[in-house]
Write a structure and sequence with these properties.
It is a single chain. This protein has 473 residues and is α+β, with helices and mostly antiparallel strands. The protein folds into 3 domains: 226 residues, HUPs (Rossmann fold), CATH 3.40.50.620; 88 residues, Up-down Bundle (Chorismate Mutase Domain, subunit A), CATH 1.20.59.20; 125 residues, Phenylalanyl-tRNA Synthetase, Chain B, domain 3 (3-Layer(bba) Sandwich), CATH 3.50.40.10. The chain is built from 15 helices and 23 strands. A 6-stranded mixed sheet has the order 3-2-1-4-6-5, with helices on both faces. α6 crosses α9. The chain starts with a helix and ends with a strand.
Length: 473
């Protein structure tokens, strides 16, 4: 008996208790009408079950008014509380650049969530069937998916539960015939220009006839397996998240004006070197989570994930002007050019402090070599030059193509570009770092050793010290 199968499924999965307060999404179609009556049968066994109906009018079809009228009559006949909502789905889809199906789904669930909150419902029940599940699995496969996509329709997701996933569409139709129940027919379900309809009306019947009579059950079983395995892998990936990331925690999402998820953690960084030591299934999940949190991407593609995992040191990956990632020192991060390179050079004698690129301040101190004591070398924030070898004023400018010099400790000249990459100077800084030149020759670049030509030696009498500090903000 179909009702007993429905009840066993609810009990086996503990979808809700005999005292639950349930808001049932009812379109007026056969599935939602069947769900409503099955719940009323269940209420005979569970008298404390509290049920209300909710109908959302998308205002997309000419028959939408008649559908709403049917649901109102159904609620009155069954003496059930009814909540009705309406939405301008076409306008919402146009404003947010969504297809009508996705826009309708978003507005419908928004209404159901708000109504459930208002009525203090424990759960929202939707009438997705096992056949819907099979169709969704096939659609995901055709569009390209992984284990996460194969989960298809979740039995329970947040406040939403789907007790009809136990029943095939044929069983629903049989139940309606036996109970002589009326329902509305959505004419768009017969439109074979829509992929889901072609799968339902053409592909699944052909698969059942020529390959596997139980294909619907087997595809639905695949979704359940994927849900269980995805949950296990998600737990593993979540356990590794703190180990392979640094920067913003990324736990708090926010939405932009369109209601879409906007980036929550622009400062987040992912350790690509650590990922190489992990199973690839986990690394892909970590990359997808990173893309979601850093850029707000809801469903990063397989190709995007693979391209990012293949990034070499200093390489970038871009899929939009403001969506650029870079592998910097083995860390994957969002690439942002915080300032522009200085187009012209500055003449500087060191008597006054120098502000550069609105980010750094440089000051000069002249030391007597004999009285200087032990020098505290730090290529990033300080350099020591032989003042007697310098031609003042120094020229200060940004890096230019072809720049090269011989740093202290190297046997010959090397391109500045290569030296900056080897020292893992952040890409965002490479084009705006100041280059200090004396007589047209590079003397120092912050982060790199001083030029061998200007190094301090035992013969040095005066030491020209340049100190770098970050400007506030």
């Amino acid at each position: 008996m179909i009702y007993q199968k429905f009840k066993r499924f609810v009990e086996a999965h503990r979808l809700f208790s005999p005292e639950s307060r349930l808001l049932v999404a009812v379109s007026g179609g056969q599935d939602s009408v069947a769900l409503t009556h099955l719940l009323l049968e269940l209420k005979r066994d569970w008298p404390d079950l509290d049920i209300a109906l909710a109908h959302f009018n998308h205002q997309l079809r000419a028959s939408a008014v008649a559908d709403e009228r049917f649901v109102r009559q159904l609620a009155r006949k069954l003496r059930l509380k009814l909540f009705v909502g309406r939405g301008r789905v076409r306008e919402f889809a146009r404003q947010n650049r969504l297809n009508l199906e996705e826009a309708a789904r978003l507005k419908r669930y928004e209404f159901l969530e708000k109504t459930a909150e208002k009525w203090s419902a424990e759960l929202v029940l939707t009438a997705h069937t096992m056949t819907d599940q099979a169709e969704t699995v096939l659609m995901r496969i055709f569009r390209g998916t992984g284990v996460e996509g194969l989960q298809a329709i979740r039995l329970r997701a947040g406040r939403v539960a789907r007790p009809l996933l136990a029943l095939k569409r044929e069983e629903i139709e049989q139940y309606l015939r036996e109970k002589r129940l009326e329902f509305r027919v959505d004419e768009t379900n017969l439109d074979t220009s829509i992929l889901r309809n072609r799968i339902r009306l053409e592909l699944i019947p052909q698969l059942q006839k020529e390959f596997d009579p139980e294909v619907v059950s087997h595809l639905a079983q695949l979704a359940i397996i994927a849900q269980d395995e995805n949950e296990a892998m998600a737990e593993l990936a979540e356990g590794m998240w703190a180990v392979v990331t640094r920067g913003c925690c990324g736990r708090h999402k926010h939405k932009d004006k369109k209601g879409e998820h906007a980036p929550a953690s622009p400062g987040l960084e992912l350790d690509l070197r650590a990922l190489k030591e992990m199973p690839v299934a986990i690394t892909r999940r970590l990359v997808r989570k990173f893309l979601h949190l850093a850029f707000g991407l809801e469903s990063p593609s397989f190709e995007q994930t693979q391209a990012i995992l293949a990034l070499g040191e200093g390489q970038k990956f871009s899929w939009g002007k403001d969506m650029v990632l870079i592998n910097e020192g083995g860390w994957l991060k969002k690439f942002e050019k915080k300032s522009v390179a200085l187009k012209s050079s500055i003449r500087w004698d060191g008597k006054e402090s120098l502000l550069f690129a609105d980010r750094w301040e440089f000051k000069v101190e002249i030391l007597n070599a004999k009285q200087a004591g032990e020098l505290q070398y730090d290529d990033t924030s300080r350099c020591y030059l032989d003042a007697g070898k310098l031609a003042l004023p120094l020229e200060v400018r940004s890096r230019r193509p072809g720049d090269k010099y011989k740093p202290l400790g190297l046997s010959g000249e090397k391109k500045l570009k290569e030296l900056l990459r080897e020292r893992r100077i952040p890409q965002a800084e490479r084009d705006i770092l100041p280059v200090f030149l004396s007589g047209g020759r590079i003397a120092w670049v912050p982060g790199l050793p001083v030029a061998d030509d200007f190094k301090v030696t035992p013969a040095t009498r005066k030491i020209f010290v340049i100190e770098k500090s970050d400007l506030p903000g």
